[in-house]
């Protein structure tokens, strides 16, 4: 297995740093899946057991000036590594004004992602800061756990309100209850609700719009849903807050799919990356 890549463009470096910082806020550990065309950050939580899951996809050509990788074999041309995104985030902090950043899969005392940042210098001798980030190589027999999740057959799909506004609302609601009800309909309306024995609080959003999903199975399912009826899911407010706090990527589109009483599926889209986050409903 071989992997090496290089970033020279400062805008690409800063964008990649924001993506990694977002991932680091969402999970302490995840799988970095490398293929010839894409990088993926994958958290394969068992939603059925109450865990969140995440799928973040990056088109490598939009981030790296050089990118070479060789997987286990021509038929299995990918590499799966378990990483702590916070370690990558820390390493990238030292590379904010770097002239170039190289990333390489190396074998030190253990497998590592070695990140080398060539920093500007007043002298003719360049300064290079190197970080060895320990990783664990995932054996091929486990790769099936880290494939792209299918979009669930949702009842309602809706565009999210401005994420900063939504975060401010959720931050306040977190102080009232551990459980938040997120509900939406096919008329572009969305509500965030807290209901306890002592208090009931609802924030209403209107005219958000509903994404066109074409002829998918989910679309046909949502067509049978009453446009006025609210599909809802009760979720752990901290998991929703964690998603909103971590977001640093300024998506061009932010959407939410709701499987009634089962799952909230959040999607952030940009031209060169996408992030999906699944929060299971609680009973």
Structure characterization notes:
The protein is of the alpha+beta class and 283 residues long. The protein folds into 2 domains: 2-146, Proliferating Cell Nuclear Antigen (Box), CATH 3.70.10; 156-280, Box (Proliferating Cell Nuclear Antigen). It contains 5 helices and 18 strands. Strands 10-6-2-3-4-18-17-16-11 form a 9-stranded antiparallel beta sheet. Strands 5-1-7-8-9 form a 5-stranded antiparallel beta sheet. β2 and β3 (38-43) form a beta hairpin. The longest helix has 17 residues, at 10-26. The chain is elongated and about 65 Å long. The model has no long low-confidence stretch (mean pLDDT 89). InterPro entries: DNA_clamp_sf, HUS1, HUS1/Mec3. This is Checkpoint protein. Belongs to the HUS1 family. It is found in: Cytoplasm, Cytosol; Nucleus.
Largest sheet: 9 strands, antiparallel
Q: Which percent range describes the beta-strand content? A: 35-45%
Order of helices and strands: EHEEEEEHEEEEEHEEEHEHEEE
Name of the CATH class of the largest domain: Alpha Beta
Rg: 21 Å
Number of strands: 18
Mean pLDDT, nearest integer?
Answer: 89
Provide the CATH topology of the largest domain: Proliferating Cell Nuclear Antigen
The tally of helices reads 5
Would you spell out the secondary-structure blueprint of this structure?
Blueprint: E1 2-7, H1 10-26, E2 30-34, E3 38-43, E4 53-59, E5 66-70, E6 79-83, H2 85-93, E7 100-107, E8 111-119, E9 127-134, E10 136-137, E11 156-159, H3 163-173, E12 179-184, E13 190-195, E14 200-205, H4 217-223, E15 231-236, H5 237-246, E16 253-259, E17 263-270, E18 273-280
Antiparallel strand pairs: 1-5, 1-7, 2-3, 2-6, 3-4, 4-18, 6-10, 7-8, 8-9, 11-16, 12-13, 12-15, 13-14, 16-17, 17-18
Helix pairs in contact: 1-2, 1-5, 3-5
């Amino acid at each position: 297995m071989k992997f090496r890549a290089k970033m020279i463009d400062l805008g690409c470096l800063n964008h990649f740093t924001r993506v990694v910082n977002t991932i680091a806020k969402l999970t302490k550990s995840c799988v970095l899946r490398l293929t010839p065309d894409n990088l993926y950050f994958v958290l394969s939580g068992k939603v059925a057991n109450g865990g969140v899951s995440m799928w973040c996809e990056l088109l490598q050509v939009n981030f790296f000036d050089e990118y070479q990788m060789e997987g286990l074999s021509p038929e299995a041309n990918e590499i799966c590594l378990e990483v702590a995104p916070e370690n990558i985030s820390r390493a990238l902090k030292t590379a904010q004004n770097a002239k170039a950043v190289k990333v390489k899969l190396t074998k030190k005392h253990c497998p590592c992602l070695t990140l080398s940042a060539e920093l500007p210098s007043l002298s003719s001798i360049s300064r290079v800061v190197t970080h060895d980030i320990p990783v664990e190589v995932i054996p091929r027999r486990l790769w099936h756990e880290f494939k792209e999740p299918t979009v669930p057959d949702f009842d309602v799909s809706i565009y999210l309100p401005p994420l900063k506004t939504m975060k401010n609302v959720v931050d306040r609601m977190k102080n009232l209850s551990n459980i938040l009800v997120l509900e939406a309909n096919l008329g572009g309306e969305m509500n965030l609700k807290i209901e306890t024995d002592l208090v009931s609080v609802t924030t209403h959003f209107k005219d958000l719009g509903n994404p066109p999903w074409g002829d998918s199975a989910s679309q046909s399912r949502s067509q049978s849903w009453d446009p006025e009826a609210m599909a809802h899911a009760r979720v752990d407010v901290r998991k929703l807050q964690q998603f909103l706090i971590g977001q640093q990527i300024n998506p061009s589109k932010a959407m939410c799919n709701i499987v009634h009483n089962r799952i909230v599926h959040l999607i952030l889209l940009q031209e060169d990356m996408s992030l999906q986050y699944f929060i299971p409903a609680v009973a």
